[in-house]
């Protein structure tokens, strides 16, 4: 293209659909390892800083991770109102617990991640993401299986955050998007607690996974709110599902949200405030209609299978 100058020799191509890819220009590979669970890269990109890539799928990037982690964490914390005990399932970069620890109400956050090699690499190479959250005295890191932890814990939690890698068939996470998993979540969630899960893309070409995850959560929880955020390096708007045994206000007043954040959080957020939360919850008509019409529920016998892996070249 006239006037364009390509400045990367190594490209990681991520398959979005069978017909679409996102090619990330990589300037340096900081870490690469095939762990017992998945293939991990930590890379430096030209446009968005450092990124974690698992099984060819972009997890988060220092340049735009706030567009994912802030909306993942804070709607659930606000829905609960005064969270003290928080359970994070996944979240290897440490950015999810970083956002949880903004809340001065939080007394304890337990993070469960199955892949200790990924967590250790993130601690070493991605300090911009965790910002010391692993060393906060309120944090407890458990390297282990989320399903086993849920089966064995008798603790109840104010907020549970499911921040898992996409449920590709070769990866470790596909069981954690099923009705059986959500039933385990509800068993250990406090009566006034809130649960949130990253729930796949919501672009028109491939939102079926999100719609079915939302429907599966609805099979377990009486109140579920779909919402999304556009994350630049995903190449698509991304969906989340917020659930609770208590009603969720679909029209939260920005002034009320801002007062709650001012009282109970520290540090300035980049994208999230009361107006943002109100906007996130106003999902478009085509997505509302698809969720209302969906009938499939993911189970262990019929789990979700996310499309595609990426590759470097």
Describe the global form.
Answer: globular
The CATH architecture category of the largest domain equals 3-Layer(aba) Sandwich
Low-confidence stretches: none
The largest sheet has its strands arranged as 8-7-6-9-10-12-11
The biggest sheet amounts to: 7 strands, mixed
The first-to-last residue Cα distance is: 21 Å
- What's the order of the H and E elements? EEEEEHEHEHHEHEHEHEEHHHE
What is the number of strand segments? 13
Instruction: Tell me the Rg in angstroms.
Output: 19 Å
Helical content class: 25-40%
Strand content: 25-35%
Total domains: 2
Number of helices: 10
Quote the average pLDDT. 91
Kindly report the name of the CATH homologous superfamily of the largest domain: Vaccinia Virus protein VP39
CATH class of the largest domain: Alpha Beta
Structural class: alpha/beta
CATH topology of the largest domain: Rossmann fold
Q: Care to describe what's here?
A:
- The chain is an alpha/beta fold and 313 residues long.
- It folds into two domains: 10-63, Roll (Spermidine Synthase, Chain: A, domain 2), CATH 2.30.140.10; 66-300, Vaccinia Virus protein VP39 (Rossmann fold).
- It has ten helices and 13 strands.
- A hairpin with a 2-residue loop joins strand 4 (49-54) and strand 5.
- Helix 7 packs across helix 10 and helix 8 (254-264) packs across helix 9 (274-280).
- The longest helix has 15 residues, at 66-80.
- The protein is globular, with a radius of gyration of 19 Å.
